[in-house]
Amino acid sequence: MRGGKGIWVAVLALAACNCIHAMAIGALRADFRRIYALDPNGSVNIQNLYGDVSITAWDRDEVLVEAVKKSSDPKRLDDAQIVVDSSGRELSIRTQYVGAGGDRPASVEYRIMVPRTANLENVKLINGGLAISGVAGSIHASSVNGSIHAEHLEGQAELSTINGQLDAGFNRVGSNSAIMLRSVNGPIRLWIPPGADAVLSARNLSGGIQTQFGRGFRSASGHRLRTTINRGGARIHVDNTNGGIVIRASGPLT
User: Fold this and answer.
1) I need a labelling partner for 90 at 20 to 30 A (CA). Which of 9, 22, 30, 60 fits?
2) DSSP one-letter code for 194
């Protein structure tokens, strides 16, 4: 009987230890939340080495920055520092790593709200996906290892990724707009309004081009397409190396 009681004590102690360990693992995160004033047409710059970034437009002259730092090692959390510089006309957000570094640095995931007509001047991700929704200003954004999903856009856009899928949907394409989409290893999908006036060109080295606009042709440099949509105007170029290209006229991405 005593032996059985001793076994139960050991089991309960082990369960408690595992519970404490699980709680400790779950606690290895640090949250950040700040609001900054920004001119409606101000610029936003973002640089993040590890972690996803989500950017959504809202009807306020402010930028909400929410970030979550995560790591399996509590010592790594302090190595990842969130640095924000604000001038009212420009806002810069970046993740800065200090300390000894290592093979498994902390990741930082951002959720950012920006004025609808703000310009995303320089958004650079290294290891993480990017999501953008509702921004009417100009966008220059890239990711090295991560997909890009952009929807309900209305302004000029230059989006590129090395390893990942690229989806872009536009509610509006201005006659003087320029849209550039690039990928190396991943498919590209583009949606534009049916009534858009544009000059469309596309090149794909190792994959095909599917579109209802014009007819593509094959050349020594892969599949190519060049056509005028409606009255022409906006300049749209899609470039890929290893992955398909799909260009459609439809509503915005959902």
Assistant:
1) 30
2) T
- Note whether residue 216 is domain-resident: yes
CA gap 68, 145 in Å, rounded: 20
Residue 188 lies in a domain: yes
Locate 42 and state its tokens. 């101000």
DSSP 100: T
Contacts of 96 (CB under 8 A, 6+ apart): 80, 81, 82, 83
- Asked, for residue 161, whether it belongs to a domain, the answer is yes
Q: What is the pTM of this model?
A: 0.85
Residue 161: Cβ-neighbour burial (10 angstroms; 0-12, 13-18, 19+): buried
Quick check: is 8 in a domain?
Answer: no
Q: Which residue segment(s) compose the domain that 254 sits in?
A: 147-254
From first to last of its 254 residues, the chain has per-residue pLDDT tens of 445 545 444 434 444 444 333 333 443 787 999 999 999 999 999 999 999 999 999 999 999 999 999 988 887 888 899 999 999 999 999 999 987 555 678 999 999 999 999 999 999 999 999 999 999 999 999 999 999 999 999 999 999 999 999 999 999 998 888 999 999 999 999 999 988 999 999 999 988 899 888 776 676 677 899 999 999 999 999 999 998 999 998 754 44
Any alpha helices (H) in 27-162, and if so which ranges? 74-77
CA 182 → CA 103, 151, 163, 167, 232, distances in Å?
Answer: 29, 16, 11, 11, 21
The total domain count for the chain is: 1
